[in-house]
Amino acid sequence: MTKKGLFNQVLQIAVVVKDLEEAMKNYWDKWGIGPWSVYTFDPNTVKDMILHGKREDYAMRLALAEIGNVQWELIQPLDDKSIYADFLKEHGEGLHHVALGVESYEEVMKLAEERGIEVIQGGTWFGFTYTYLDTREDLATIVELYNQPEGWEFPEPEDTYPKNS
């Protein structure tokens, strides 16, 4: 009998950076990775922010680009509260998490709770829920899950790199 996996797709690879503008420039100018769409996640754009299982606001600025079928994300923390700020302090810049696709967000969240896996950060951005699970002990990385409503589309970016992309 074949065991069915919980995860069915790699959706995103995320890197925490000190300076988003510098990182986008480096990725695009030196490596041709981009173009980038830029968004700010803060209490003005994200509802129901969660940090270590409790309701708490945090802020970051991020840029998204596609490499094949996988989204690449650069994240610059804008405060010292988020899991990104913690990562930057402890490790410096680097790979932070992987977003994985699932058939049922609710089922995986229930399983995570049963296994004592902590929700270390999350929120709802324009109706799109993102949740970070502390899977470092089992998977050596943080896993992000999405609960994306049917027909959901990205909002217009605040900025792009290079400009007018």
TrEMBL record:
The question of whether Metal-binding is a record keyword is answered with yes
Q: Which organism is it from?
A: Acetomicrobium hydrogeniformans ATCC BAA-1850
Q: Which GO molecular-function terms appear in the entry?
A: metal ion binding; methylmalonyl-CoA epimerase activity
Q: PANTHER family, per this entry?
A: METHYLMALONYL-COA EPIMERASE, METHYLMALONYL-COA EPIMERASE, MITOCHONDRIAL
Q: Please give the PROSITE patterns that the UniProt record associates with this protein.
A: VOC
What is an example of a Pfam family matching this protein? Glyoxalase_4
Q: Which keywords has UniProt assigned to this entry?
A: Metal-binding
What name goes with this protein? Answer: VOC domain-containing protein
Q: Which GO terms describe its biological process?
A: L-methylmalonyl-CoA metabolic process
- Start and end of every VOC domain? 9-159
